[in-house]
Amino acid sequence: MTFPLAIQGLGIVAGFGSSNKDALQAIQNNAGPNASMQVQTQDGPIDYPVYAADPAPLKEFVSPKKLRRINKYSRLATLAACLALQDAGLDIPLPGSNIAVIVASGYGASTTTFKFLDDVILEGDEFASPTQFSNSVHSSAASHITILLQIQGPCLTVTQFEMSPVTALLNAQTWLKEKRVDAVLLGGVDEINPVLLYCYQNLWSGQIPKVMEPLDFQKQTAISGEGAAFMLLTRDEGQAPQYGYINKVSWENASGFELPKNNTIVMGADGHRVCGRRYSKMLQGVDKHNLKTFSTITGSMPSGQMFDVVLASLAARNGLMPDRFCSIKLNGDQDVGAVYVSSHSDLPQDS
Amino acid sequence: MNIQQKLKQVIIEDLSLEDVSIEDIQDDDPLFGDEGLGLDSLDAVELVVVIQKHFGVQIKDMAIGREVFQSFNTLAKYIEENMG
Amino acid sequence: MAAESESISPILVTGMGMLCAAGGNVPEVMDHLYSGQRTPVISQRVRSDLHETYPMFELPPSAVPQGYYEGPEPERCGLLAIAAAKGAAKDAGLDADSLRHRRVGICIGTTVGNAMNNESFYADFLHQRFPPMDSIKAFLRSNPADMVAGHFKLKCMRQCVANACASGAVAIQQGAEWIKSGLCDTVIAGGSDMLCRVIYNGFISLKITDAQPCRPFDKNRQGLNLGEGAGVVVLESQAVARQRKILPHAVLSGYGNCSDAYHISAPKPDGMGLEKAIDFALQQAGLTHQDIAFINAHGTATPENDKVEGTLFSRLFPNTPFQSTKGYTGHMLGAAGAIEAIITIEQLKQQRIVASVGFDTPDLDFEVDPVTKNTLIDGEYALSDSVAFGGNNAALIFRKGSRA
User: Among C178, C46, C175, C187, which residue's Cα sits nearest to residue C112?
Assistant: First the structure.
């Protein structure tokens, strides 16, 4: 759908840190995994490299008392949301605002679901924790954002594997186009845990990668990442927004999809060999200098495209890459998510 | 450690009251509302599990819960009377 | 917002399909409801080691479609969504082939359908028994929106909405948005959820389940009964429906989605978020409170939920008949909003509303009571609302359509 979304602010928390400055440094230094997590396997414990994110700076925005029951999944999302609002020059909280919240997640609060099951499995059903249960639902991050930031507008959580960010953005376009709200606080969030790494190990067993090489399409080099990447989006208000515009968002069929010309391509490839083949096919004939990937600094996660769009917008604003780019993400064999960004607003074709 | 003390400790730990210490809590402090610890409805049902886990004492329904969750004193008394 | 409603092509409901403990399709469910019967069971499939048992509205095994993969457990939610979507597409006069020639979107609300909550896999993991990946692979293939697309062999836009117990209602809203904005011609939208141990233990731990059949809006209500099922509607613009010469069951006249910004598990006592959502829906539809012929309430039968709705209705809709149908279906979580939307539309069509089962003694905390008999109505518009965890509130307003 073609409808310009003005990017008013960005907020990101990932393995490299939780500020735009941290993000720019990570982009320039091509920062790699920052931690490791142990997973038990039949052959003994394995230390997996990971991109682990720390939501601790959230305490600068929200009093610790209000955070006592809130899990890491929701803290990551709320921190990135606060950073995006701060970057847009807005004060927190925002009572009375006409803002919507949209959260995209692939895995949801699975760590908390497992914590809930720990009590049930190890202690018995009567020890099921209502607090863990309430925080285990995918929607808990969006709910905590509305509660902590006092946002009373519409709220939506979407989950559709790798396509989650694109469907989130399409919903934001519809709400802004119809003037349902004045702004949308939108982001992706995913979290890692040992269960996920155990699945990584068993689904794509082989050598444990030390660094991600997303453009080496023959190799399985995905390393799990976590964090949250948010944007504050508004309609085109005529004043050039600091990060330009998301002009078009589209869900395409891989079979008929062609990469746009005159755009830097931000590839969503994130070290999964099975996807790599498809990315490689799509990239035939594309000048490698015209390609960017950000998965090497965030790690691999289903909501990764949101991180790509946030980091590319930040990089473009700071002269680290051209300011007209298209973020591409593949999902399975058939789906392509495409997000077109530039410093200028393209006239909407369908209005 | 007596029941009062242990109760304070498990409530602080299991309800993640990070900024509260045992010394801050008076025996007759209410558990709920702004006057006391500021616990809420979700803490109330969590407390049922916490009490069962640490003291083996069951609070069968929330009608009993409302009675015994008045203050640390009332809850400690209930635990004492019902411990096996 | 009211001025805008004129410029937007009305969104029509041209097909409906549902299944739940009350029946395997739309007529069966409605017959069951009008008959006043209800059949909660003590599940043999979903059990806990607790001394008490809690009845649920579970689909009988014969009503659950055959699985595609290895046993119906991880994909149950998707299978229910397929069954409802098949019914809705057929009702709308669409088959897989005709759908493939349209710009279709699939938008399914669910709470369990996307949760990695496979208990036996996790228990094996926890005890270092190193479980194989079969159940994880099944999980990865069991996204309900993907399964519905797979059934019709559609390569189309898909989305699961995870707005807790308002998911089904919100999925219908977002489906409507996709049509209004020109993204899709036709949207298959609704909700699907299944009973499982995580949900059972979770709701019991919150102390909001009734060991008896639930009693919505009754003074002595003790909580909800869980249920499962799926409800799916086909949404189309008026232009597309006219072109296809299909008459609508209803028009989706207005909808709202507003947050309480209050608490992770309790509704805001003054119902502020719900009131805002209803106001939005009324404004969009260009209506006032008096235009609403009846309300299908969320009415879970928890003390808190029913008090919020009862208090709000006393103020906003003091003379409007209302009901909760959860006494017949149980609380179907992410499916509830969608199934209740269909029940609402059916009652508008028949101009007769179902008695709110389980109600006996008025609650003096609010001034309104649900209808206790099947009641004839005379009106064009009805409201269905959803009140969910985390302060997610949704409202849908339907106008009676021209389909008999």
Answer: C46
Q: Chain B within 8 Å of A68 (Cβ-Cβ)?
A: yes
What residues contact B72, with CB distance under 8 A and at least 6 apart?
A: B4, B7, B8, B25, B26, B27, B28, B29, B31
Cβ proximity of C152 and C170 under 8 Å: no
C191 against A278, higher pLDDT: C191
| Mean pLDDT (whole number) for B66-80 | 92
Which one is catalytic: C165, C184, C196, C214? C165
Interface test with B, best of A58, A71, A129, A144 (most B CBs within 10 A): A129
Whether the CB-CB separation of C274 and C385 falls below 8 Å is answered with: yes
Q: Could C263 and B49 be called an inter-chain contact, meaning their C-beta atoms sit closer than 8 Å? A: no
**Stretch C264-278: mean pLDDT:** 96
pLDDT band at residue A274, thresholds of 50, 70 and 90?
A: confident
Q: Is C165 noted as a catalytic residue in this protein? A: yes
Residue C189: strand, helix, or coil: strand
Mean pLDDT for the stretch of residues A310-327: 97
Q: In chain C, what residues touch B42 (CB-CB under 8 Å)?
A: 206, 263-266
User: What is the interface pTM, i.e. ipTM, of the complex?
Assistant: 0.97
A118 contacts chain B (CB < 8 A): no
CA C67 to chain centre: 23
Amino acid (1-letter code) at residue C353: I
Residue showing tokens 């010309």: A261
Cβ atoms of C387 and C305 within 8 Å: the answer is: yes
**Three-state helix/strand/coil letters over A142-200:** HHHHHHHHCCCCCEEEEEECECHHHHHHHHHHHHHHCCCCCEEEEEEEECCCHHHHHHH
* Residue A96 pLDDT grade (very low, low, confident, very high; cuts 50, 70, 90): confident
The SS3 assignment for C384 reads: strand
Task: Give C140 or C69, the one with higher predicted confidence.
Answer: C140
Residue A164, classified by CB atoms within 10 Å of its CB into exposed (0-12), middle (13-18) or buried (19+), is buried
Mutate to test the interface with B, among C201, C206, C207 (most CBs of B within 10 A): C207
Task: Give this prediction's pTM.
Answer: 0.97
C390: left (phi over 0), alpha (psi -120 to 50) or beta: left
Give the distance from residue B42's alpha carbon to the nearest chain C alpha carbon, in angstroms: 7
Q: Does A134 lie at the interface with B, CB-CB under 8 angstroms?
A: yes
pLDDT, residue C68, reads 63
- Strand, helix or coil for residue A133: helix
User: Residue A350 has what pLDDT?
Assistant: 44
**C184 is known as an active-site residue:** no
